[in-house]
Write a structure and sequence with these properties.
Radius of gyration of chain A: 19 Å
Oligomer: homodimer
Number of strands of chain A: 0
Structural class of chain A: mainly alpha
Number of helices of chain A: 10
Shape of chain A: elongated
Largest sheet of chain A: none
Chain lengths: ~200, ~200
């Protein structure tokens, strides 16, 4: 009986994060998540492979947003302009509606070393995909890898600021400001080296 | 009967890498490794927790070499000079004698997705430790994280060149050249942005 449930995915996400916060990630079962959301286990499994995917299911969408923005930037775009376009594209993922989810998700991951490892790996893979997208535009390997790391740092810095409780500014201007800060640091490192 | 076996660790590493290359990583057992090395399983377990540690046991030594070089650099050292010192310190790990091991290790990891994931995570953790060592010297968070990524990229670029079959140049000059290349790219990204 696979009937359509309105907002099933969002309801499951909300239920899962509430339960992770209340009882811990390990102690939460898929049955409990489905129950809390007022849905069946089979509805859960139509949306997520397992409970971990509630936290990491956005990876593909994020990678797709980054890489297609880089791939479709005008041929004349500089590497930095490609990174700007990629960060701008992430707005589709980090909408104001996702703010609460992002905050809760971060708290769950911070409390669990296996999930922290998964997050580290997710970011490393995203960086590899960005470097590949830049190489596909003709950037040399070292430039592509460095620019990808700069983009990832701008992304994680901006994400931390955007997810701050009380922040109401949308993601793109925060991300552009972070990218400019990273560029300034890159210029300083590239010159004489900043005092440490 | 815990008697001392000369060069046990190196013999076990050589045996393990030969077997991984011959039969694959998954099909190789600790018993086979010990047997090939002419040692017992209990000798193996005095040196390694499991067969994966033959490939990743160097992580702590590498982290220690990087972070203590940064921690003991003169107070006047710039961030880039700290990275230089860290890359220089890695010479204790990448000696000419380790060249063959490094090449074989790389081939085993490249053939196995779970090991690639482990390697990605190892590098991400090493980067976090380097950033922490730079913050401990007073670098601001964004500079520390960017410099750590620049250091990691210089390290992996240099490692790939050093490990090339036929290379006889020692690690430090290769690493310094890679760091200079990264600095040039950083300067370009920090300026107008390089065309991609």
């Amino acid at each position: 009986m696979a009937r359509w449930e309105p907002n099933a995915r969002e309801r499951l996400e909300r239920a899962a994060l509430a339960l992770f916060a209340e009882n811990g990630y390990d102690a939460t079962t898929v049955a409990q998540i489905a129950d809390r959301a007022g849905l069946t286990k089979s509805t859960f499994f139509r949306h997520f492979a397992d409970k971990r995917e509630v936290l990491f299911g956005g990876q593909e969408r994020l990678t797709e947003a980054f890489t297609s923005a880089i791939g479709t930037a005008p041929p004349s775009a500089t590497t930095t302009e490609c990174l700007s376009a990629a960060l701008e594209a992430v707005e589709v993922v980090f909408t104001p509606q996702r703010h609460e989810f992002a905050l809760q998700r971060r708290a769950v991951i911070a409390a669990h070393s296996e999930l922290q490892e998964r997050e580290l790996l997710k970011m490393a893979r995203l960086g590899l995909a960005v470097a590949e997208a830049l190489r596909a535009r003709g950037a040399d390997d070292i430039t592509a890898r460095l620019a990808a790391e700069v983009g990832m740092l701008a992304f994680s810095t901006a994400f931390a600021r955007w997810a701050e409780p009380g922040n109401e500014e949308p993601f793109p201007p925060i991300a552009h400001a972070a990218l400019r800060e990273l560029q300034d640091r890159a210029a300083a490192l590239g010159a004489a080296g900043t005092p440490a």
